[in-house]
Please model this.
Amino acid sequence: QVQLVESGGGVVQPGGSLRLSCMVTRFALDDYTVGWFRQAPGKAREGVACVSSSDTGTYYKASVRGSLTISRDENAKNTVDLEMKSISPEDTGVYSCATSLWVDMCGGISAMNDRDFDYFGQGTQVTVSS
Model:
């Protein structure tokens, strides 16, 4: 059974940084598009970043562009990271990763749709608080 496991969440002060990781078991992650989603308290889940298979393209939600970076971990096989910088209270939420068979998705979309993703992890909590 495919498993996606997120890690790296926690409590961080405004302006701080975090690196979230998504590790996948049971298949080669390079063959799939990987996305990161965020669900803020009381709000719907939204896609914030994704990377197409073989790094052929990336997508960032406009509001997070410049503060989030998605990348495939060169040192950890089957892991995709989400680096968060200049974190603000609006970044609070549960961050989950997901995989998609739409291998060249991210370079040509205007928004992420969770219906285009097949497997989701349980998520990791990020809380921004001073």
Notes: DSSP finds no helices and eleven strands in the chain. The mean pLDDT is 93. The longest strand covers residues 18-25. Residues 57 and 107 are 4 Å apart (CA to CA).
